[in-house]
Design a protein that fits this description.
The complex is a heterodimer of chains A (about 300) and B (about 130). Chain A has about 300 residues and is α/β, with parallel strands linked by helices. Helices cover about 50% and strands about 15% of the residues of chain A. Chain A is built from eleven helices and eight strands. Chain B is of the alpha/beta class and about 130 residues long. Chain B has a single domain (about 5-130), classed as Rossmann fold. Chain B is built from five helices and five strands, in the order E-H-E-H-E-H-E-H-E-H. Chain B has a five-stranded parallel beta sheet, sandwiched between helices. In chain B, strand 3 (about 55-60), helix 3 (about 65-80) and strand 4 (about 85-90) form a beta-alpha-beta unit. The radius of gyration of chain B is 13 Å and the shape is globular. The interface of A and B includes residues 96 and 106 of A. Strand 3 of chain A pairs parallel with strand 2 of chain B, so a sheet runs across the interface. The structure holds guanosine-5'-triphosphate and magnesium ion. Magnesium ion binds near residues 62 and 63 of chain A.
Chain lengths: ~300, ~130
């Protein structure tokens, strides 16, 4: 116990002095001991980074797009969180997003970290809030989060990101249909990637048709391999951050993020309780009451 | 939960072996980060340290192992990491012995059963200090 205390202090001091290895350890703590991570993060001042969520179906080019975004950054400090699914059977995971970004592995301004989603719904990691805070405490200008290649209902990224980029591609079947099922509401920007595919024009007009009438959501055509169209996207992302910083939207979003962070902590507590709960012949109501009772005890322990 | 990185240094583009091992370790319940092919020792080591993996696996077929692997071990040391390293590939026996003397945990030939690799990887992680 005293041993881990020493390491915590080291991580705290390392984070303050922007030591890269301490950030690596901090992020591990976010996964392995999130409560302890929150305690340390609480003691650190944080920069308000632009948190950008990148989501969309498997294979649309999210990772490639992030790599191209990094190509075009000069001088900005960026934290990148890439999330891939865990196997529900073995708990193992193959985290492959990093492959597309390896040309940036040794860049001092960028820090790429892979997370498994550990079965969490929503296409993110259960420690995503802690991880995002850690990057902000490290002083990143932007934090980019790539979600699991999502299906339809994984919209949690909107709870943490200041800006949600929904990426579509003309190779991916009926993407517009998928949008109707959920991603439409959370998109702050649409990117139609793989603009080298001529069918991207058809996708563009279909997307325009379904988005017209809704709030004005800009659409960008990009080729993530050549970088075409990416600069305009970046300029507009920066403009948007400036806008939401000055019109009060960012403040609102951060309040919501805090709520969702708290929710994720309580959820973790409940999951933990459920795993260790003995039923012992009790009925539904009794189990419910005991869960709440145990949850209240947790509060006492922490204070 | 064991976190392992499978990295592929050198100029050859054959990553079938690396991918087979990566999948086997995933199926054994580990989180496996794959770096892709043609990685420099610097890229591999920085990635492994940033990801704070428990163990690093190097897949190498190019014949440059006696140059690349000691370089990776040196870089790890210079970054203050003592994570265990294992190697897979076509490596002559005497070279394998030299690499183990330099600190490589184990060297696996092309025929090594993946279940055995997974078992041993678990053991290397348990016995390492961090
Ligand atoms: N032609 C073309 N191919 C692209 C483009 N962008 C990405 N790709 C290719 O599409 C494939 C998938 O790209 P990724 O970046 O891995 O896609 P992803 O959305 O991150 O995939 P997941 O993380 O698995 O969901 C790769 O082979 C890329 O090279 C593009 O603009 N044009
Ligand atoms: Mg990806």
């Amino acid at each position: 116990m005293s041993n881990t205390r020493v390491r915590e202090d080291e991580i705290l001091e390392g984070m303050k002095s922007h030591d890269r290895r301490s950030l690596a350890k901090m992020l591990s703590l976010c996964e392995k001991a999130p409560d302890m991570a929150n305690e340390i993060l609480d003691k650190l001042s944080k920069k308000t980074s632009h948190v950008i969520g990148i989501t969309g179906s498997p294979g649309v080019g999210k990772s490639t797009l992030i790599s191209t975004i990094l190509d075009k950054m000069n001088g900005k400090k960026i934290g990148i969180v890439v999330v891939d699914p865990s196997s529900p059977f073995t708990g193992g995971a193959l985290l492959g997003d990093r492959v597309r970004m390896q040309s940036h592995a040794t860049d001092k301004n960028f820090f790429i970290r892979s997370f498994a989603n550990k079965g969490a719904l929503g296409g993110l990691s259960p420690s995503i809030y802690e991880a995002c805070d850690a990057f902000e405490a490290f002083g990143m200008d932007d934090v980019i989060i790539e979600t699991v290649g999502v299906g339809q209902s994984e919209v949690d990224v909107a709870n943490i990101a200041d800006t949600v980029v929904v990426v579509l591609s003309p190779d991916n079947g009926d993407e517009v249909q998928m949008l109707k099922a959920g991603l439409m509401e959370i998109a702050d920007l649409f990117v139609i990637n793989k603009s080298d595919n001529p069918r991207s024009q058809i996708l563009l007009s279909r997307l325009r048709a379904v988005t017209s009438g809704n709030k004005e959501v800009p659409i960008y055509l990009t080729n993530a391999v050549t970088g075409e169209g990416v600069e305009r996207l970046l300029d507009d992302l920066d403009d948007r951050f400036f806008q939401i910083s000055s019109n009060g939207i960012l403040v609102q979003k951060r309040k919501k993020r805090l709520l969702h962070h708290a929710q994720s902590i309580v959820r973790r507590e409940i999951d933990h309780l459920i795993q260790n709960l003995e039923i012992n012949g009790r009925n539904l109501k009794e189990i419910r009451n005991q869960l709440i009772e145990e949850l209240c005890k947790k509060d006492d322990q922490n204070n | 939960m064991i976190k392992v990185m499978i990295a592929k240094p050198g100029l050859d583009g054959h990553d079938r072996g690396a991918k087979v091992v990566a999948r086997a370790l995933r199926d054994a319940g580990m989180e496996v980060i794959y770096t892709g092919i043609r990685q420099t020792p610097e890229q591999i080591v920085q990635s492994a340290v940033d990801e704070d993996v428990d163990i690093l696996g190097i897949s190498i077929l190019s014949g440059a192992h006696m140059k690349l692997i000691p370089r990776i071990l040196d870089l790890l040391k210079s970054k203050g990491s003592n994570m265990p390293v294992f190697v897979g590939g076509i490596i002559p026996k005497e070279d394998a012995e030299k690499l183990k003397a330099l600190g490589v945990a184990e060297v696996y030939g092309p025929g090594a059963p993946t279940s055995e690799i997974a078992e041993q990887v678990k053991r290397f992680v348990e016995h390492s200090s961090t």
